[in-house]
Amino acid sequence: MVNRKTLTPESSPRAAFGAHLRRQRELHGWSQETLAVRMACSGQHISAVETGRKPPTLPFSRRADQVFGTAGTAESFEREWHEMRRGSLLEGFPEYVGYEKRATEIRLFEIGIVPGLLQTPEYTRAVNMVDVRRGLVTRQQAEERIAFVAERQATLARQAPLMLVVLDESCIRRQVGEAAVMDAQLQHLIDFAGSHRTMLQVAPFSAGELLPFTRQVSLPTLADRSVIAYTESHLRGFVERESGPVRALLMRFLQLQSVSLSQADSVALIRSARQRAV
Fold first, then answer.
1. Which pTM does this prediction carry?
2. Are 176 and 124 in contact (CB under 8 A)?
C-alpha cells in the first residue's frame, strides 16, 4: 500500500486509538474512503485520526462503535475515548471503576482524605484545584477529574450497592478547603451513615499498630459474588483479581472493622470534629 504510515500505538493514547481504528478497519477489509462513507466524514479525517494527527471526538467514537459493532465491548471506541480524557488519572484506576460500576457491595478504606464516592462537590474541587496550583495538572484536567467523581457518584446512586466504609481518623481531622467546605463534608458523612444501604466506621488514631492497612483499599463484590481488590501507590493503581490475595485483603478488612469504632461512636466523633471545624 502506497504511503502507508507505520503506527506506534504505545507512543500515546491518541496513537493507540488511531491504531485501533486502523486495525478494525482492516479486519473488515475496508479502505479509508469506505469507512469514511459509513461514518459520514472524509477519508482525510479517517487518515488524520488513524495517524494521530487529529484527536478523536466523542461523537466520532460513538459512530465508530456503531459501524464496527463494538459498543459495550472490550473493543469499544467510546470507552477508549473516555480513558483518553481521563489520562490525568492514575494508571489502573479507570479499569477499577469499570468493576465499581457493576458492584453489588463495596468495602472501602481510606486514609488521609475522604474518598471520592463520599465527597461533596466543594470538597472535590478543593482537592483537585490544589494540583492546578502546584502545576501537576492543567485546569482542564482538574475539571475532568471533578466531573469524573460526579459521574461515579451518579452511578453509585443508581446502582445503590451496599457500602461498608472505614475512614482513618485523619480523613475527618485533616481540613480540606475553607472551614465551610469541611463543615459541609462532615455533615455529608453523617448523612451517609444514616442510609439503610451503608455502614460507616472510623478507625481511630488509638488503634495504632493494630490498623491492618497503611494505604487505601477498595473491595467491590460483583453480582456473581466474585471480589476485586484495588489499591494505590503514589504512581499508579493496582487491580487484583486472584482469589488468594483478595481473600487475604478481605480478612484484613474484617480485622480493620474489629479495631474501628462502631457506627454510632463514629458518627459521634464526626459530630465532635465538625464542631471544632466551624
1. 0.70
2. no
What's the pLDDT at 2? Answer: 47
217-221 and 105-110 strand pairing:
antiparallel
CATH number (2.60.120.650, 3.30.930.10, 1.10.260.40, 1.20.120.420) of 9-85 reads 1.10.260.40
The whole-number pLDDT of residue 87 equals 56
* Separation between Cα atoms, residue 111 and residue 165, nearest integer Å: 11
Region of residue 135 (phi > 0: left; psi between -120 and 50: alpha; otherwise: beta):
left
Domain ranges of the chain: 9-85, 93-117+157-277
CATH superfamily, domain at 93-117+157-277: Endonuclease Chain A (3.30.870.10)
Backbone torsions φ then ψ of 110, nearest 5 degrees: -135, 150
The three three-digit cell numbers of residue 218, written as one number = 477498595
Q: What's residue 1's pLDDT? A: 42
pLDDT attached to residue 57: 87
**Each residue's pLDDT tens digit, 34-69:** 999 999 999 999 999 998 888 888 899 999 999 999
- pLDDT, position 120: 97
Q: Cα–Cα distances in Å, from 204 out to 59, 65, 171, 172, 213?
A: 48, 49, 10, 10, 13
C-alpha cell at 100: 465499581
- Sign of the CA dihedral running 32, 37, 43, 46: negative
Residue ranges for the chain with pLDDT beneath 50: 1-2
Q: Angle CA(159)–CA(200)–CA(109) in degrees, nearest 5?
A: 85
